[in-house]
């Protein structure tokens, strides 16, 4: 049975107390939180813990961020974790809704989130699929990212037409396949959305491959969850294991994470584009593994060169763009800067005090994020329920977390 703590009740009371004031005044008041920083609890999960002061971070800025989260200034933030200098130094959870595809605003039950609860990670799972591809190459199941995708899709040779044979595994993992696709211009509750339409296909892999080329493979970036579904099919054919079993053996077990369930589109096809459920600490383990060049607890899990490729934008026309506050490009975060896409991760260059700060992140619908800051030896994790509003957690990073690094 779930226990509601005193601090959780205070947060809920604060939210409902402030709501009439916000509606009446129509203003954006300063935070009224009485938040007191608490270092993370040490658990038997491989994380060393410490304090913000120990790693040189400014506790006052982080406390201000928490206050604004509790005041609802960033919509629904469900968790925020900060790992820096080999220690977990911040971990907080907030009340909010579970994800429900057919619920209003994609919201299900109202819950008190805590460290033991698994959260829908949405397209953060694409970065996990990417890691599995890198591991499959390292283990010798796949020869190279430069191979045509059709070398591992034997049942679909009849669709190797009109130049689609030139689509490589690298094109799939970098979202540059050129296949015609649109999942950003309509709601993810709309069956006309190319992604949602997959659940109404008799053969989802064929439905993806039947799409014509809208551009030459490798020439332009188009966010395409169908690409990632194809990667799942390739892993299954190359390894003899579906991606759920493969990830359990080669990724999650070495990291000390219990097997993670993957959604299935049908009996034969796993949705490799995301939607798994993980705890924020499990998400953090994945991010820290990338921060440490693919190592977890001294074991090389993801190949180092694959991590390096995940931290830089894939080269080529249309694979890097300038994100502007007045013209945001999904995943919308309200933060300007140079944006790109790599091997299943978005890249973003923040600016702070005249300095460029590179990052790369696994990101998912509703504001799920694992953000790696190589130059600050840090990883930040968010889970959120902002499914029908622009994601705001990058603004938390820009306004509070990054300044607190200094």
What can you tell me about this protein's structure?
This protein is of the alpha+beta class and 406 residues long. The protein contains eleven helices and 14 strands. The protein is globular, with a radius of gyration of 21 Å.
Question: How are the SSEs ordered, and which strands pair?
Answer:
Blueprint: H1 6-25, H2 59-70, E1 77-84, E2 87-93, E3 95-99, E4 107-112, E5 119-120, H3 124-138, H4 169-173, H5 194-197, H6 204-209, H7 225-239, H8 243-252, E6 277-278, H9 280-291, E7 295-296, E8 299-300, H10 304-310, E9 320-323, E10 337-341, E11 346-352, E12 355-364, E13 368-373, E14 378-384, H11 393-405
Antiparallel strand pairs: 1-2, 1-14, 3-4, 5-6, 7-8, 9-10, 10-11, 11-12, 12-13, 13-14
Helix pairs in contact: 2-11, 3-7, 3-8
List keywords for this structure.
14 strands; Beta-lactamase; disordered N terminus; two-stranded antiparallel sheet
Please state the average pLDDT score: 89
Side by side, the strands of the main sheet go: 2-1-14-13-12-11-10-9
Task: Just name the CATH architecture of the domain at 124-280.
Answer: 3-Layer(aba) Sandwich
Strand content: 15-25%
Contiguous runs where pLDDT drops below 50 for at least 5 residues:
1-32
CATH fold-level topology of the domain at 124-280: Beta-lactamase
Helix fraction, binned, reads: 25-40%
CATH superfamily of the domain at 124-280: DD-peptidase/beta-lactamase superfamily
N-end to C-end Cα span:
42 Å
């Amino acid at each position: 049975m779930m226990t509601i703590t005193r601090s959780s009740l205070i947060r809920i009371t604060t939210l409902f107390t402030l709501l009439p004031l916000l509606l009446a005044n129509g203003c954006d008041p300063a935070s009224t939180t009485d938040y007191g920083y608490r270092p993370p609890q040490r658990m038997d999960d491989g994380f060393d813990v410490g304090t913000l002061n120990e790693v040189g971070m400014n506790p006052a800025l982080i406390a201000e961020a928490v206050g604004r989260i509790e005041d609802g200034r960033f919509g629904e933030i469900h968790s925020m974790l900060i790992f820096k200098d080999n220690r977990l130094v911040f971990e907080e959870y907030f009340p909010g809704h579970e994800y429900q595809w057919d619920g209003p605003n994609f919201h299900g039950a109202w819950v008190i989130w805590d460290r033991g609860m698994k959260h829908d990670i949405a397209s953060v799972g694409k970065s996990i699929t990417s890691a599995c591809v890198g591991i499959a190459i390292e283990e010798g199941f796949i020869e190279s990212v430069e191979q045509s995708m059709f070398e591992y899709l034997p049942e679909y040779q009849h669709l190797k037409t009109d130049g689609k044979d030139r689509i490589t595994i690298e094109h799939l993992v970098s979202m540059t396949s050129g296949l015609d696709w649109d999942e950003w211009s309509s709601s993810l509750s709309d069956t006309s959305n190319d992604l949602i339409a997959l659940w109404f296909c008799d053969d989802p892999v064929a439905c993806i491959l039947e799409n014509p080329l809208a551009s030459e493979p490798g020439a332009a970036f188009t966010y395409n969850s169908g690409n990632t579904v194809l990667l799942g099919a390739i892993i299954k054919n190359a390894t003899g294991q579906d991606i759920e079993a493969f990830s359990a053996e080669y990724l999650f077990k070495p990291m000390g994470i219990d097997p993670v369930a993957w959604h299935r589109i049908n009996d034969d096809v796993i949705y490799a584009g995301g939607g798994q459920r993980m705890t924020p600490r499990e998400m953090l383990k994945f991010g820290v593994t990338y921060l440490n060049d693919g190592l977890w607890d001294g074991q090389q899990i993801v190949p180092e060169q694959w991590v390096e490729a995940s931290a830089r934008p894939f080269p080529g026309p249309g694979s890097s763009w300038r994100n502007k506050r007045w013209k945001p490009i999904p995943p919308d975060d309200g933060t300007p800067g140079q944006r790109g896409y790599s091997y299943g991760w978005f890249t973003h260059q923040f600016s702070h005090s005249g300095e460029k700060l590179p990052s790369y992140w696994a990101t998912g619908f509703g504001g799920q994020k694992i953000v790696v800051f190589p130059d600050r030896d840090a990883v930040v994790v968010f889970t959120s329920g902002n499914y029908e509003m622009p994601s705001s957690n990058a603004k938390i990073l820009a306004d509070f977390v990054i300044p607190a690094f200094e």
